[in-house]
Automatic annotation (TrEMBL):
InterPro entries: SRAP, SRAP-like. It comes from the Bacteria. GO terms for biological process: protein-DNA covalent cross-linking repair. GO terms for molecular function: single-stranded DNA binding. It comes from Arthrobacter glacialis. This is DUF159 family protein. Coiled coil: none annotated. Gene3D superfamilies: SOS response associated peptidase-like.
Length: 117
């Protein structure tokens, strides 16, 4: 959440601190500037899917765009290596995320400082 120019970090979790999963995508690309036998020729690129911003907890939004949270009942389908990654699967993940966003709990935390404290 941002107030003026100050950003306040928040801890976000499910009630009871249940595990929470996010919908992510990855791809092994190729770095054509390197020889094909170079160990860094196939870098891994990953991203977390986001959707339209929704309120968390008390309804106040923390940022633009909301990560797509995966309901535990959707984990097996999302992680199934035999499942074809088509738009309908992404749409189903976004639809399943809506109820989770409504029950998330959040609270402000102290910002991390670069001095190790």
């Amino acid at each position: 959440m941002t107030e003026g120019e100050l950003k306040t970090p928040h801890a976000i979790h499910l009630p009871g601190n249940e595990l929470m999963g996010f919908a992510g995508l990855y791809i092994w690309g190729s770095d054509k500037s390197l020889p094909e036998d170079h160990e860094a020729y196939w870098p891994l690129t990953a991203t977390i899917l986001t959707r339209e911003t929704v309120g968390i907890g008390n309804g106040r939004q923390l940022q633009e765009g909301t990560p797509v949270t995966l309901s535990p009942s959707f984990w097996d389908e999302w992680l199934d290596a035999d499942e074809e990654g088509v738009q309908s699967l992404v749409d189903a993940a976004v639809a399943a995320a809506t109820p989770i966003a409504e029950v998330l709990e959040r609270y402000p935390v102290e910002p991390l400082r670069g001095d190790g404290s």
